[in-house]
Design a protein that fits this description.
4 helices, about 15% strand, alpha/beta, 4 strands, single chain
Length: about 120
């Protein structure tokens, strides 16, 4: 799978453009996902053709925050993405790495799981 960054709910065009510029030197595919595709498996959205898209997509509400999913990246490349975001002072509250465990989840399922983890980490501080 090609190194891909999936973007969800980036409504601020300026921030999205700054993010794309910050990641451009890393030469990764950046793909913005629309709400109409949220019912598909996240792995399928990232380019895993072994996962089948949903025939009848469930429609739901927009997720409540921006989410960035990194697919096909080594741990070193994940670190490069995070450094690039920090250097450009771009804050994305919900970030995830696509794994075999979460690649079959739809966007809402993945977002809820990340949101729970984010809240747990915030409570530890």
């Amino acid at each position: 799978m090609r190194e891909t960054i999936l973007l969800f709910h980036f409504t601020d065009t300026d921030q999205r453009n700054r993010l794309v510029r910050a990641l451009f030197p890393l030469r990764m595919k950046i793909k913005e996902i629309s709400r109409e595709d949220y019912g598909n498996p996240v792995g399928y959205l990232a380019g895993n053709k072994e996962l089948v898209p949903e025939k009848e997509l469930v429609t739901g509400e927009e997720i409540s925050g921006q989410m960035l999913v990194m697919a096909g990246l080594s741990s070193g490349r994940v670190d490069q993405v995070l450094r690039a975001l920090r250097k450009a002072r771009i804050f994305v509250p919900y970030k995830a790495v696509l794994t075999t465990a979460n690649q079959s989840w739809n966007v809402w399922e993945l977002f809820e799981e990340i949101k729970k983890e984010h809240e747990k980490m915030s409570d530890l501080k």
